[in-house]
Amino acid sequence: MHGPELSSSTIAVGAGRPARTPGAPLNAPITLASALVPGGESEYGRHGNPAWTAFEEVLGALEGGRALAFASGQAACAAVFDLVPARAAVVAPAGAYSGTLVQLRERARRGLIDLRLVDVTDTQAVVDAADDAALVWLESPTNPLLEVADVEHIAAEAARAGTAVAVDNTFATPLRQKPLELGADFVVHSASKLISGHSDVILGAVVTGNPRAHRAIEARRANLGAIPGAMECWLATRGIRTLHVRLDRAEANAREIARRLQSSSVVSGIRYPGWGTILSFEVQGGPEMAQKVTEQSDVITHATSLGGVESTWERRRRHAAEPDVVPEALVRLSVGIEDVEDIWYDVERSLAAI
Question: Where is this region: Disordered (predicted)?
């Protein structure tokens, strides 16, 4: 089903389906069971579920590896971090997602790792920091500064040094970037975002092309109990079927909004890599004005999440754990699939308060 002759959009629609036998359902069913009859792949609900399998098959096919679903993106991150040897070095972006940095800093505070924060756009700095490290953690683009890393070059240099590379591919999705093909060892997703796409799921995933690494990650999931729910996996599988359609529409909207913002006299520091559905910018008047702008919109929802069919925005530094490198008045806008003129009208009307 997912051979090289098929496009990613076709794989998104068709992978992870039940076998086409007479009377079989078109979609994998929601299996609500804590125990299964022995003799199959799993006999206990902490080790496997048919709804997990369907989601893992389609995401793995899209990323070019084997996927494992987790209870959340944070749980997926933790499973990868758990593979780092004691007191080994981990390289990560200084402007990474705050939840990721909270985990890494806590591990560093406890003496479990040597944390090295870098400017992910400075490729040589990343390579130098990775020379004797156990893991390079990349976000590309980063959240919320939209910084893009040279994943292929960093992965090649890291491989020469014997350093593993993990890439958070939440913003790009496998339709815009396939880190395993670029040399990464792990791909991590907050599948709550674009993968599922409807703001109704908390779910994470790790994908790897290495069988030994897959077994190690699977063991972390089972032993620590960071397992997803059957309903969440079923919803995410349904969501991923339309990923290509949603992504194309929202990306076109985001590109147009970013272009129009360039002419605004009340915003600066517009960050948009030219693709994807997320952009950010700084609002004149400081954090108080940025907060006011995001709270008075009608079409755009003031919310902390992203990647859904609806547009959302927020001032990121309102969160205490947000990295200091994020400007106080920076607004992150996740562009949805609404009519672009309606989104732009709401942006203009909200910015008019300045």
Answer: 1-25
Q: Are 33 and 45 in contact (CB under 8 A)?
A: yes
SS3 190: strand
What are the tens digits of pLDDT across the range 155-209?
Answer: 999 999 999 999 999 999 999 999 999 999 999 999 999 999 999 999 999 999 9
Query: Where are the CATH 3.40.640.10 domain residues in the chain?
Result: 8-240
Write out pLDDT tens, residues 34-57.
Answer: 998 998 888 899 999 999 999 999
End-to-end CA distance of the chain, in Å?
53
Q: Which residue from 178, 226, 212, 183 is spatially nearest to 78, judged by alpha carbons?
A: 226
Q: Based on the number of CB atoms within 10 Å of its own CB, is 329 exposed (0-12), middle (13-18) or buried (19 or more)?
A: buried
Is-contact 188 77, C-beta < 8 A? yes
> Cα separations (Å) of 280 from 40, 127, 143, 144?
48, 27, 9, 7
Q: Could you tell me the pLDDT band of residue 2, with boundaries at 50, 70 and 90?
A: very low
**Burial class (CB within 10 angstroms; exposed 0-12, middle 13-18, buried 19+) of 299:** middle
132: number of Cβ within 10 Å: 11
Q: How far apart are CA 351 and CA 333, in angstroms?
A: 13
Question: What are the strands of the beta sheet with 312-315, ordered from one edge?
Answer: 267-271, 278-283, 330-334, 312-315, 301-302
The residues of the chain that CATH labels 3.90.1150.10 are: 243-351
Mean pLDDT value across the chain: 96
Report the CATH fold assignment for 8-240. Answer: Aspartate Aminotransferase; domain 2 (3.40.640)
pTM of full prediction above 0.90: yes
- Report the C-alpha dihedral over residues 238, 11, 53, 228, rounded to 10 degrees: -50
In order of 75, 98, 103, the CA distances from 291 in angstroms are: 30, 19, 27
Report the candidate in 2, 108, 13 with the shortest Cα–Cα distance to residue 65. 2
